[in-house]
Amino acid sequence: MLKRSFTLRARGGTFLPRQTMTRTRAISMASFPGQKQNTKLTSWLIGISGFGALSLGIFYFYWPRHNFPSPVAKKLRQALWEESEKSDHDYQGALRYYLEALQECDNSGVSSISDEYTGVELKIAEMYERLGMQKEAHNVYIELLYRYYDALQDTNSVPNNLRPHLIQKDLRVLIKSIEMNQDVELGKRNLLTHLLMAQEEVLSRSPELKKFFDRRKQRTLKLFQGKATGVEPIDFQALVNENTIKLDEDSHMILDLAKDSSAWEPFKDEFFTARDLYTAYCLSTKDIASALSCKLTTVEWMVMADMPPGQILLSQANLGSLLYLQAETFESQIYRLNQKREEEPGLKTDDNIIKTLRTLHRNRDSCFDMATKCYDSVIKFSKRNNKLRFNAKDLMDHSAAHAIALSTYGMGVINLHNGTLPRAERLLKDSISMAQETDFQELYKEANQELKKVYLAKETTAKTSKTDEGATK
């Protein structure tokens, strides 16, 4: 078999209070090798955006549209013939001709970052995949990522008017490479590197966005690293309301065409998909602070970029679940510190321990409060616009209906955590009903599990009451 060497260089949703988030199709935690599921949280990832099939279909190669040199075009015609049904889908033969076509591109001086050159490489990667050669296919994608990155970092390589197009291609290849990735740290590092590059492009095209980002960055980092003292509260209700999400006369959600989202074009779909993948990778490595910081900015930027309203709603619901997870992390730290104080009585008067506990309590309460606001804003929005829920079956995109169901579930879990059992029971039953309406199987399963906990808690409370009455008599 002919093989081309692709040299690799080293480079220096829905999340539930028992689940998680990311994009158009589910990704289980098994996708992240070597990671264990949280014993308290069942980690699963559901789509938060209808970005379309960001997989191999994105890279389908329409070779007649490109101006290839004659020797390259000849090889491509032979490759497409071998790949076709007329040749019984001979992917081995097609791969040979695509590799030869790429060699002809080199001989003809075709730019290695052009649509023509990279299009041939993407067909090579596709053939590798069809032949079950996953490692070779992944190597092609990684090499493409390095080449796009180097070109975009060199201000003389890519004209300004072509940069957005090249960033879009870079992010698409990034997403595809992540689908095949088996190395958590490599995936996380690649996501961060290429996202930062795309982010800088957006900020360079919008001074207003840059000011907003710089202002939010410090506040978010302080809060979710447990260092917040007097941090301004976040008004989550401002992210989901009639000012940010428009509805027509039939109560169908529509885009706000008055917004200027040009700074994000043409790669905003790919950009937000990649950000969600980065959030998922942060969760898989238990880097909750980074996941939460990323998600908070993502929700705010989705509003600014005029993303589809249903995706904004679901992203906000996911943010609420991340905040709940962060609150539980603070609560776990409080529990461990208190245990340590019981074991070492001298620590009960230690000023540092006392200050740490106060900060942890404050941040825990803040995260629970913000999670409640996240969920509640989605629920209130749906109550003011009933068709979002009751016409759920008629909607092609179930993101809005899923956001409402998830937020209702989240409020149920919070009430269970707070011991408000009657309200927790009602909310969980309501979320189960909504999950059934939209065939939201993951939520249906988890909501039933949480409802069992409510029943168990009610039984325990009843038994305790009877015991206390007997003791009194």
From TrEMBL:
The protein here is known as LAMI_0G05050g1_1
> Sorted alphabetically, which keywords does the UniProt record give?
Membrane, Transmembrane, Transmembrane helix
The record ties this protein, via CDD domains, to: Mgr3-like
List GO terms (cellular component aspect): i-AAA complex
Q: Name one GO biological process term.
A: protein quality control for misfolded or incompletely synthesized proteins
**PANTHER family the UniProt entry points to:** MITOCHONDRIAL INNER MEMBRANE I-AAA PROTEASE SUPERCOMPLEX SUBUNIT MGR3-RELATED
What residues form the membrane-spanning segments?
41-63
Q: Does the keyword Transmembrane apply?
A: yes
Q: Which GO terms describe its molecular function?
A: misfolded protein binding
Q: Does the keyword Membrane apply?
A: yes
Specify the species: Lachancea mirantina
